[in-house]
Each structure stands twice: as structure tokens, then as C-alpha cells.
């Protein structure tokens, strides 16, 4: 609605948010919040505070139309603003009236202070003007005649850092990491070295990668044509958690190079990156283990790397540990070598090509239970004191592995699958490697596809509330049908295995399996979003709304209770957006006298309750009571059928609860008196009466 072309302003829809403030805004727009509902613009006239509200269509009779003068209200608002403004001006003046009514001149001290401040201000302005045209930021000196893209950041040693972007350049691609780590669980520190095989995709002098929290002691560089290692300079830029290796020669396109970085760091205590945890053993002695959680951006804290999903490479991991500890990683163990001082070095097989955030390892005292599944050894590890509690976890993991392999038609590619208990997300599931990782849509956490048996529409989707990707996939599955959806997902996974993808790749796969439904002229109406499986609102043409309203009045049970609740939800949401009239929304719920299911009644009470709260907050109690009267007439039969017991199914008890609450809150059907009598009887029985 254009506020300058219509004298009628919409009601405020954010009454819940505004209720936390003592003072209401003079004018707010009802259409800004989609969850609360205005009345139809042609049925509502809203003036500033102190004026009145006219609403038509909620009752049988019109209200008296003795409207206030809009111009008078505007003048009152203008006077109020002028009074506030003049008050500010009066308080800001330098002259004050003396008791005899004359104005006193500022003192000499006041004048001197003012002159001093003026001189200081002028001096600062002149210094800034005479300095070079340069704006200093965290990223260095930015000249005003340059674009922000040309900011040159400074490294920790004061030299210019050769890269200013948060995302890494794509001139260099890692091919393989050889990672050597020695976590010390006593001092909670670790030493490491990483050797990265690189390929230059375009000519460059610098290698930019991620690193944070590392004390880098030595960096060497070697080209494929020369076997001689050269020590090179490293520049650190903590603001972007990046380091730059300045190569001793130009890195040529298509050539391979080797970079080796030696460093040390602290083991984290924040359950992020390479972190350590302490626990109590059987004899109450304190024990420690170290584990990893690299998703989304913490691999860079364990070793210098190209820590973005698109930079996939293979990994060879070696871990030095004390003899009493066990070390695990993504891949099976190749060898264990006894070293000096009683230490052991475990080397793991080279991994498949994967992103850095999928790298995982753990060191500590552990025992395990295992089971072979079609050539894959499934193991569940736990600290020795908890090994007796892993049987259920092992059984569940075996079932999930078989389910995923059958559903996706992809065999698990490794020879082992490890899980750890009581390690607080210590490693990531390998499942993510099947999916592209630039735009992650899937969650590793197994989520049941089984619907919940509930009274509320869409409540089966609550399982997915924490996983937006899973919720979206469920919506697509319902729309496409389960078989078509599965075929599209399998097609997508096989085409993009181990690759970096974009979200459009998934949509392209689904689009190939879409179909069109041709409707005949005999079809009187169509209900879209069957059973409210989708997270969207459907707006129908006027004739279609009328056809659906007619159907509800004729035989509402042609539609499921979820579809009926969905229609109620959609039409009131659309009324709040000004897309349909509020009168039409109330016409749709006129069938409620024949409604026996919980979901549509609950949705009606919720939506009309928002309108009631709005009117009550604005002080229009006569109009608010008219809303209650209209709804109570529709639900009078259902309210009278309720008993004051806790019997029946969960849906029946929920329906009883919402109807009796509505009746008692609004003083209907002698509800409050009955409730008080029952409460007094319960108190008199010392809580024994049921």
C-alpha cells in the first residue's frame, strides 16, 4: 500500500514485539511482519495514538461512524513534535534567563574554554587535510582514490601481505598432504610437520594457505626438477588466518612443487580443532585423550592447509603416541613403528580425495567392539570404562550403513568404519565425501524418515527442525514421490562423487525428473501442498478460494485435517500480507461448527487470537469482544462437549485443553466458575481427588 495515496493506514502487526516497550509507536505498518494479521485496508482506518479505529466485517452490525478529524490529529502530533524540538533547542542555548528576566552573558572562563576547543578542532582538521590521502584500516593503508579491492594488508612482521581476500586464490592446488603429529597429552601441546604436494594452475610467486595458532619454525620449498630443499620466508596475516610462502622462483603453470612446514601449537580446550579432554578412570585417576572437530574451519588450527572445501586432496597421516594409547584416523592403519623413549608412530593408509574438514584422528586409551559388514569392518570405540555400553551403538551403525548403501546404491568405499562414544563429535562421518562440499545440503547426522503420529499438521517435520537441508529434501520427496526422488538423488550422487559442486547441480538433477499434471475442465478446485508437507504459503485465485470455501461448508472431510488447517493458516497469513480480505478469511472458518479435529480448531484459535491480542493491546475492547463472539459461536458445540477429565487420546486431550482454555480466558459457558469449583474440591481433598 502506498502511504501517500490513501488516507487509510494499516494496523500494526508487530504487537507482540511492541508489547515489550512502554510506549507504542505512533504509526506502524501492519504488513511488515508476516506472522501477525492486519484487518483489510478497506475495512480499517488507523489514526495516531488517541484517535479511533473502524473495522467492518467482523459482526452483523456496523459500528457508529463518528470519525475524528484526521487533520486535528495530525496537528496534535505536529504540536507534540514541535514542543519536543523546542525543548531541545531551549536546552542547547548558551544564554540563560536570570531571575529578573534578563539574559546573562557567559563568563570569561566559559569563553576561554570555547576558544581553546575551537583552536584544537581547527588544528586537527588541518593536520588531517595535510596528511596523505590514506585511510588506515585493519588491512593496512587504503588510499581514497583506490577501490577497496586494492587494499594491501600488512603481515605481522610489517611487510606487505600479498593477498587481501578472505577466500584463497586458486592459482595453487594441493594434491597430497603428509601430516606428522605428536600430541603431548601431559603438556597439552603438539608438534607437527606437514608436507604438501602442490600443482600450479597458473604462474605465481606466492603460495597462500591457512594457518592459525601455530609457531612456525621452518618452511622449505622444493620444485619437481630440483631435489634440493630451499628455506623460504613465511608471512603471517592472522586477521584472515592466512600465511603466504614467498617462493624463491616463479611457480610455472602445470608444474608440481613440494612445501614442508614445521610448527608447534597448543591443544585446544574448546571442543574445536585438535582438542583435549580429561576424564576419570576406574581408580578415579585423571586421564586424557585428544580428538578433532574440524568442521567447518578448524583444520587450519591443527596443520597449515588449504582449508576450503574446494581444495580436495589425499592425506597420509602419521601420529606419534605413547605406547598405552591408541590412535585412529580416517583410514586403516598401515604400520606401527617403535621409536625411542617408548613412543610409537602409527602410519595410516593414504585417504581418498577429500576436503580438509573431513580429516579426523583421535589419541587416547580406548577399547572397541567390531562387526564385519560386506567387507567393511565396523567398530565402535570407547574409553575402557565404558566399553560395555557400545553394543547398541554398534547394532545401529551396522543398520545405518546397510540402509545408506542400499538407498544410495553406492558401496562404502573404505575397509573400515569407526565410531567413538563420549568423544563429543570427535570425528566426522565419511558419508560427506559422497556429496559435493562447496554447498552442503545434506547433514551427516542420521535423521529418521519415519513420520510422527501427532495431532498437529506438519508436526512430523519437527524431526527436521535442526536440519534445514533435510526439511527441504523431505518437501521435495513428497512433491516428486519417493521413487522419483530417490532416483534423482542417486543420479546426482553418481554424477558428482568426490567432486566440488554447486547447489544448482542438485536442482538440475531434480528438474530432469519433474512432471506436469494436466487438469480437465471438470475439476472444480485444487488443493496445493497436500498435507502441508511444504514450507510455503499458497495463494489461490478468487474463484478458487470461493470453491474451497464452498467445499468446506458442503463436506469438509473431503480434505484431510492437515489440509483444512493448512488452508486456515494460509488464508490468515495472506490476509496479514494484504493479499486477501479479512472477510474472506472469516468466511473460510464459517464451517467450523462441523469440525471435530484438533488441528483446524487449534490453528483457528491461534490466528484469531493474534487479531484479538492486537485489538486488546490498542484498547479496542468492543471490537476484540466481537472477534471472540464470532469464534465462540462457531465452536459453541465443541466447547459444550468437553468434559473436565484427562481421558481420551492425545488428540482428544489436546483439543479439550485448547477449547477449555479459550472458554475460560474469555468467560464463556460458565467455564471459570466450573474450574474454580473443581480446584476448591481438589484443595479440600488434600490433592487426592482426581
From TrEMBL:
<dbReference type="InterPro" id="IPR001930">
    <property type="entry name" value="Peptidase_M1"/>
</dbReference>
<keyword id="KW-0645">Protease</keyword>
<dbReference type="InterPro" id="IPR014782">
    <property type="entry name" value="Peptidase_M1_dom"/>
</dbReference>
<feature type="transmembrane region" description="Helical">
    <location>
        <begin position="111"/>
        <end position="131"/>
    </location>
</feature>
<dbReference type="GO" id="GO:0070006">
    <property type="term" value="F:metalloaminopeptidase activity"/>
</dbReference>
<dbReference type="Pfam" id="PF11838">
    <property type="entry name" value="ERAP1_C"/>
</dbReference>
<dbReference type="InterPro" id="IPR027268">
    <property type="entry name" value="Peptidase_M4/M1_CTD_sf"/>
</dbReference>
<dbReference type="GO" id="GO:0042277">
    <property type="term" value="F:peptide binding"/>
</dbReference>
<dbReference type="InterPro" id="IPR034016">
    <property type="entry name" value="M1_APN-typ"/>
</dbReference>
<feature type="domain" description="Peptidase M1 membrane alanine aminopeptidase">
    <location>
        <begin position="469"/>
        <end position="516"/>
    </location>
</feature>
<keyword id="KW-0378">Hydrolase</keyword>
<keyword id="KW-0862">Zinc</keyword>
<dbReference type="InterPro" id="IPR045357">
    <property type="entry name" value="Aminopeptidase_N-like_N"/>
</dbReference>
<feature type="domain" description="ERAP1-like C-terminal">
    <location>
        <begin position="525"/>
        <end position="686"/>
    </location>
</feature>
<keyword id="KW-0812">Transmembrane</keyword>
<dbReference type="GO" id="GO:0008270">
    <property type="term" value="F:zinc ion binding"/>
</dbReference>
<keyword id="KW-0735">Signal-anchor</keyword>
<dbReference type="InterPro" id="IPR042097">
    <property type="entry name" value="Aminopeptidase_N-like_N_sf"/>
</dbReference>
<dbReference type="Pfam" id="PF17900">
    <property type="entry name" value="Peptidase_M1_N"/>
</dbReference>
<protein>
    <submittedName>
        <fullName>Leucyl-cystinyl aminopeptidase-like</fullName>
    </submittedName>
</protein>
<dbReference type="InterPro" id="IPR050344">
    <property type="entry name" value="Peptidase_M1_aminopeptidases"/>
</dbReference>
<dbReference type="GO" id="GO:0005615">
    <property type="term" value="C:extracellular space"/>
</dbReference>
<dbReference type="GO" id="GO:0005886">
    <property type="term" value="C:plasma membrane"/>
</dbReference>
<dbReference type="InterPro" id="IPR024571">
    <property type="entry name" value="ERAP1-like_C_dom"/>
</dbReference>
<keyword id="KW-0472">Membrane</keyword>
<dbReference type="GO" id="GO:0006508">
    <property type="term" value="P:proteolysis"/>
</dbReference>
<keyword id="KW-0031">Aminopeptidase</keyword>
<keyword id="KW-1133">Transmembrane helix</keyword>
<dbReference type="Pfam" id="PF01433">
    <property type="entry name" value="Peptidase_M1"/>
</dbReference>
<keyword id="KW-0479">Metal-binding</keyword>
<keyword id="KW-0482">Metalloprotease</keyword>
<dbReference type="GO" id="GO:0043171">
    <property type="term" value="P:peptide catabolic process"/>
</dbReference>
<dbReference type="GO" id="GO:0005737">
    <property type="term" value="C:cytoplasm"/>
</dbReference>
<feature type="domain" description="Aminopeptidase N-like N-terminal">
    <location>
        <begin position="174"/>
        <end position="358"/>
    </location>
</feature>
<dbReference type="GO" id="GO:0008217">
    <property type="term" value="P:regulation of blood pressure"/>
</dbReference>
<keyword id="KW-0325">Glycoprotein</keyword>
<comment type="similarity">
    <text>Belongs to the peptidase M1 family.</text>
</comment>
